[in-house]
Every structure is written in C-alpha cells, then in structure tokens.
C-alpha cells in the first residue's frame, strides 16, 4: 500500500513499546518501530519516555547511572541515523547522564542527525525522585519546518503550568513522552492539555509489564489530539504498535470556536501566586474546618424573578432532605443575557432587591448561599462589576468575589476585578468564581495556591468537553472540589455539575487523578453531594513526596505572569 501525504499536511507517527531488561534489545525495538512507522512516510516519529530502559527497574542512583546514556552517546546516535535515513524528525526519551547526575530527558533529532530541542522532566514521579534530578532546561520551544514545537514528559502533564507556558510561547504542537500505567493519562491528562491550550498534542506511551514480575502494566493509549480536544488517532493499551495522523497546522476549521479566548481573557497580572511557594501544607493552618460538607446546585428553569423564587423555594428541600449547608445559584440568574436592550443600571437595581430575597432564604434555612449579581463600581459610577457573593446563615454577605476575566463584548460597561480570594468559613475554605472566570484554568490554580477546598461557580457551561475534560482536570490537578451551578439556557445541555476530589492513596493508583463527575438530568433543577473536605488538604500523587503543589518548578513559570 502506498501512503500519499496530502499537500500542506504534516504526518505524525506515535510508537508505543514494551521494554525488556536488555539495553541492546530495547534499542533494537526502538529502531524496529521506527522502521515500521517509516512505511507511512512520517515527518515526525515519537517514542516514549525513557526508551532505553524501564524505569521500574531503576531502584537507586547507582542503577540510574548504570543504565543512563549521554545525549551524544551511541543510543541516540543510532536513533539519529534513522532520522537521517527516513528524512524525518524523531522525538524520544532516555535516562540521561550528566556528570554525576541523572535526568529523565527527551530530545528531538533532526534529519541531519542533530538535537534541535532538549527538555528535562521537571517533576520526577514516585520512586523516580530517588534518582532523577528535576529538570533545569526550562520550557523551550523550537521552530521546525512544519510547526513550533515543545516537549513535556509524563508527570509534567499532571499539573497545568508546563503545557500552558509552552502554549504561551507559541507552540502549535506539544509532544508528550510517557512512562505511565494510569488510564487517567490516556483519557484525561493528554487530551485536556490540547483542549485547554488550543494546540495539537501527540503522545507516546509504553505497554507491557511495569516491572519484572509485576502484575500492573503500562497503559499504552498513545494518541494524537486536536486543539478541540478530539482524539484523531489512539493506540490500544496492550500491544507494541504505532498510530499516525495527518495534521494541518494552518487549518482554521480544526481550531475551536473559542480560539483566541486564551489570550483575550487571561489576566497575567493576577497570577503572581503561581510563581510563589503555596500556603501549604494546609493542615498546619489554624483553621481546619469540618471533615465533610453537604453541598447543592440549584438550576431553575429560565431566568428572572420567577426563576429566583423557584430556586429559593427549593432551598428548604435540599437543606432538609439532602443535608446541604452550601447552595450555589447560576450566573446572573435574574437576567436575560441575550437581550438586545440589556440595561446594566436597571439590572443592578433588580439585583439589589434579589439579594435581599437570597439573604432571607439563607436565614430561614440556616445555610450558606452563593449568588451572582451586578453591582455598581464604587469608584466608577458609570461602570459595573460582575460579582459572586457568599451569604452566611445570618443573611450577611460574608464575602464577595469580583469577576476578573471579562469578555471583550462586556468591557464597555464591566470593569474586572484584580484579586482572587479564599474565604475562611466555619464550613471550610471557600472560593467563588463567576461567568468566564470558570473558563480560565489559572482561576482554579491560584485559588488552590491560596488554600481553597471548595470552588463554587456561578456559571454557564458551553460544551461537554468543558465538563468531561476541563472541570474534571481542574479537580484532578488541584485536588479541590468544584460545585458548578449552570444556567438552564446555557449552550451545554448537560447542566450543573459537582466534581469531587478523592483522597490519596486510591485504588487503582490513578483513581485519585480521575475524579467522578455528577451532572444534573435535563428535567432536574437540583443536585446534591457530600464532599470530603479532608481529602483536599493532601496534594500527594505518588510516594516519596510527588505533590501537585510542592513538586512544580515555580522558577520556570515566569511566562505565566508576563503580559
């Protein structure tokens, strides 16, 4: 069969391999898979993390030194010769020796047998901490003939900073080399990094036993994902194989309808917390809060005063029958956001009146309520804030969060806030997000660094992937709970959502990184859950100190806060 490549398209092949405790055989396996992939005439071939040796067999620094390679050594030289032979670029990972240190490194080799990009893994995972130094290469991006390309490795994709930095540096394709036994990589962490950054992602994982005699296995699932988060090619979980796809980096139809929102909405000046050490571990705080918390979302049909009264009428039911103490209402519930004659001044007056009704409901039910409303900007009377208020059981406004990320079409009358807040309450550490704040991953990440346990969102869901990938990943990468009340007229028919964090450790081991998602049925108007608040105090994801907040390399994320 002849494989003809469409004009202007880049052909990418991802290989997955089962390694053995024999370096020469591992090299032979890599070369053989490259030979097989060459049958489709690829422009780029990707092989897994640590393709020279199975890290499951590395127990110490001496083991790592014994089975490491230099980037100029014979292992990568043999791979480079294949790049020259087939006129393609090859990305591959190895255990790298550098003086007396060992790193988990991935490189891109060019057809002229040169290393055009080198990246060292920033977050060693689990036992790797004992022998792999955290990377010191930063987050480089290289211009290849077909696209700007960046690399990241396995556990680097469990947190959002590395891939976000690469995207902000202009990467169109992110190459992810993997050494993973978790299905969460396949079905969540890899596709979400494409979706949230609006870039292509191509990953190569291993298959086979994770260690000699072990029962658990690598999870395979090597894949190529579009900027929309769609998987265009994916391998199985068991077999040595390669998959491939043709990618047009200039095809505007492959980009999501929200292309550009990443840069339009971001407020880098508000993300300074992400390059600082977080307030953690949280169990050392003076306030610890309860072990669990009953929560509910209320999603009445429609909008306006009738919808508000329907929601407040349901408060008593979810408090008494569902045990909820914290209830969240949708974004700007009083208003028709599509109205052509929308008057913010009149809307602000209506919301003052509505707020009194919400306060009364909080007093009657002895519960906490989250309500989204429009307020006059005290410093600019002709401007307004979009706010999310937290009402306590006495009917007082305990705290208020001004929406920070304001869409361009609202900036004629809306002024954004500048500070994320976490409210220390008797029922836990609460964060509030409204509207498009919920669409920006940095919102959740900053709140996490500030110690949040529960993020209450008054929003409007736009599509299924915002739930299945976006919100699920926000919980997984931060180990927080999200209670998302969506408007009934939101574009996404899935409705309101509660995503719960699980405590570490979990069974299977990756379960803690793939949280459950509860969504409301179309005919329902409420959803309740009980949250394990203590689960949010520990951000561990693997033994020996691999941690969602302590392991990231803050000194390498400066790009996140640059305009």
Word description of this protein:
The chain has 563 residues and is an alpha/beta fold. The chain has 2 domains: 10-247, Nitrilase/N-carbamoyl-D-aminoacid amidohydrolase, CATH 3.60.110; 272-561, Carbon-nitrogen hydrolase (Nitrilase/N-carbamoyl-D-aminoacid amidohydrolase, 4-Layer Sandwich), CATH 3.60.110.10. Helices cover 22% and strands 26% of the residues. The strands form 5 sheets. A 6-stranded mixed sheet has the order 5-4-3-2-1-12. A 6-stranded mixed sheet has the order 6-7-8-9-10-11, covered by helices on one side. The protein has a 6-stranded mixed sheet with strand order 17-16-15-14-13-24. The protein is elongated. The model has no long low-confidence stretch (mean pLDDT 93).
Q: Which topology of the largest domain does CATH recognise?
A: Nitrilase/N-carbamoyl-D-aminoacid amidohydrolase
Mean pLDDT, all residues: 93
Main β-sheet description: 6 strands, mixed
Look at the helices and sheets and give the structural class: alpha/beta
pLDDT < 50 runs, ≥5 residues: none
Strand content: 25-35%
**CATH architecture name of the largest domain:** 4-Layer Sandwich
User: How many helix segments?
Assistant: 10
Assign the CATH superfamily of the largest domain. Answer: Carbon-nitrogen hydrolase
Number of E-state strands: 26
Spatial order of the strands forming the largest sheet? 5-4-3-2-1-12
Q: Any idea how many domains?
A: 2
CATH class categorisation of the largest domain: Alpha Beta
Overall 3D geometry? elongated
End-to-end Cα distance? 50 Å
Whole-angstrom Rg: 25 Å
Helicity level, as a percent range?
A: 10-25%
């Amino acid at each position: 069969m002849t494989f003809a490549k469409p004009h202007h398209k880049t052909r990418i092949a991802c290989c997955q391999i089962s390694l053995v405790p024999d370096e020469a055989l591992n090299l032979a396996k890599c070369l053989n898979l490259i030979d097989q992939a060459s049958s489709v005439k690829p422009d780029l071939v990707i092989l897994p993390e640590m393709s020279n040796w199975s890290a499951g067999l590395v127990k110490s620094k001496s083991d790592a030194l014994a089975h490491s390679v230099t980037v100029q050594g014979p292992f990568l030289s043999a791979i480079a010769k294949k790049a020259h032979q087939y006129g393609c670029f090859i990305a591959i990972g190895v255990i790298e020796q550098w003086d007396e240190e060992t790193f988990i490194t991935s490189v891109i080799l060019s057809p002229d047998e040169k290393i055009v990009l080198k990246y060292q893994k920033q977050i060693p995972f689990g036992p790797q901490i004992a022998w792999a130094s955290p990377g010191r290469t930063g987050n480089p991006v290289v211009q290849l003939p077909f696209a700007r390309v960046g690399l990241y490795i396995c556990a680097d994709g469990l947190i959002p900073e590395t891939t976000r930095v690469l995207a902000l540096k202009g990467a169109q394709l992110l190459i992810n080399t993997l050494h993973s036994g978790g299905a969460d990589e396949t079905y969540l962490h890899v596709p979400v990094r494409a979706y949230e950054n609006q870039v292509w992602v191509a990953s190569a994982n291993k298959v086979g036993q994770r260690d000699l005699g072990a029962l658990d296995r690598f999870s395979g699932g090597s894949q190529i994902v579009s900027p929309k988060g769609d998987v265009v090619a994916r391998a199985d979980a068991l077999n040595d194989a390669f998959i491939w796809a043709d990618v047009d980096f200039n095809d505007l139809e492959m980009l999501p309808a929200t292309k550009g929102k990443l840069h339009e909405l971001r407020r880098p000046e508000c993300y300074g917390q992400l390059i600082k050490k977080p307030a953690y571990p949280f169990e050392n705080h003076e306030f610890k809060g309860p072990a669990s918390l009953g929560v509910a979302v209320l999603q009445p049909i429609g909008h306006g005063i009738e919808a508000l009264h329907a929601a407040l009428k349901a408060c008593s039911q979810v408090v008494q029958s569902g045990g909820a103490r914290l209830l969240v209402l949708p974004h700007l519930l009083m208003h028709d956001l599509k109205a052509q004659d929308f008057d913010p001044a009149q809307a602000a007056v209506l919301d003052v009146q509505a707020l009194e009704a919400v306060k009364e409901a909080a007093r009657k039910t002895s519960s906490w309520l989250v309500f989204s409303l429009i307020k006059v900007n005290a410093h600019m009377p002709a401007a307004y804030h979009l706010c999310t208020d937290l009402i306590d059981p006495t009917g007082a406004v305990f705290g208020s969060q001004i929406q920070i990320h304001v869409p361009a079409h609202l900036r004629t009358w809306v002024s954004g806030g500048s500070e994320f807040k976490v409210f220390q309450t008797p029922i836990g550490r609460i964060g509030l997000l409204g509207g498009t704040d919920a669409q920006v991953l940095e919102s959740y990440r900053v709140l996490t660094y500030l110690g949040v346990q529960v993020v209450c969102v008054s929003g409007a869901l736009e599509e299924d992937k915002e739930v299945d990938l976006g919100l699920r990943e926000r919980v997984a990468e931060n180990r927080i709970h999200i209670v998302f009340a969506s408007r009934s007229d939101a574009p996404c028919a899935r409705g309101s959502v509660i995503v719960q964090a699980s405590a570490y450790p979990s069974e299977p081991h990756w379960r803690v990184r793939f949280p459950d998602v509860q969504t409301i049925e179309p005919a329902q108007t409420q959803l309740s859950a009980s949250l394990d608040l203590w689960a949010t105090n520990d951000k561990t994801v693997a033994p020996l100190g691999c941690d969602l907040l302590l392991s990231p390399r803050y000194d390498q994320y400066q790009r996140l806060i640059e305009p």
